[in-house]
Amino acid sequence: xxxxxxxxxxxxxxxxxxxxxxxxxxxxxxxxxxxxxxxxxxxxxxxxxxxxxxxxxxxxxxxxxxxxxxxxxxxxxxxxxxxxxxxxxxxxxxxxxxxxxxxxxxxxxxxxxxxxxxxxxxxxxxxxxxxxxxxxxxxxxxxxxxxxxxxxxxxxxxxxxxxxxxxxxxxxxxxxxxxxxxxxxxxxxxxxxxxxxxxxxxxxxxxxxxxxxxxxxxxxxxxxxxxxxxxxxxxxxxxxxxxxxxxxxxxxxxxxxxxxxxxxxxxxxxxxxxxxxxxxxxxxxxx
Length: 287
Hints:
7-stranded mixed beta sheet; 5-stranded mixed beta sheet; alpha/beta; 23% strand; globular
């Protein structure tokens, strides 16, 4: 028996990185199947075009694409905001297909507050001046995720819980903490300069909701939707309130629905770029 979907006005998801080993696509699909948003904003790095050369595309990743398209076909307004890993889509800025739209940034007025949605890579010094270094970093990050999967398999064998190496590094290495703080402050100052009340980003995989003030005493509310690699988080706006959603803290999903993959890499389907494009195109044609 299908459960009734939870109605919510707006959901923001970013940094899913479909096409990489670290993407928690199965968990995301369970979340998407549990909600019925009026508007779904995909705030960048949903599909990781940087990693397509690996020919890695599990069925669970395609199910996320199909679920999003299904939501659009049933009335949900879907805004796909481009990020750096899916920057290939930036040339399609403004493209509309029914309830589905591609944009490089997006603006909404929510409860009288001017809200700006953008991925955030424009604020990343490495992305702007050393894109090759950013790509090397992405490859290294994915390698760390694969190592993490192996470690979690061993931990599961001994009855221990999962750990996230990359999250621990970010939380404890001073340079990573400094980068996050600098990113948030820069984003806030840009939002204040553009006279926004709220700004909503992704990119740094750090779910956040806080008020940030510049040196002149002006403030803006800064929100970040996190990611579906480590945090499994999103932002939800309903009844004029924002909240950070965490999949692993969702008591409305029973334990069987929240079972982890215990570090396994399931249902691998190897496709080259042309095959993948054709498969995704065939899904679009169904809606």
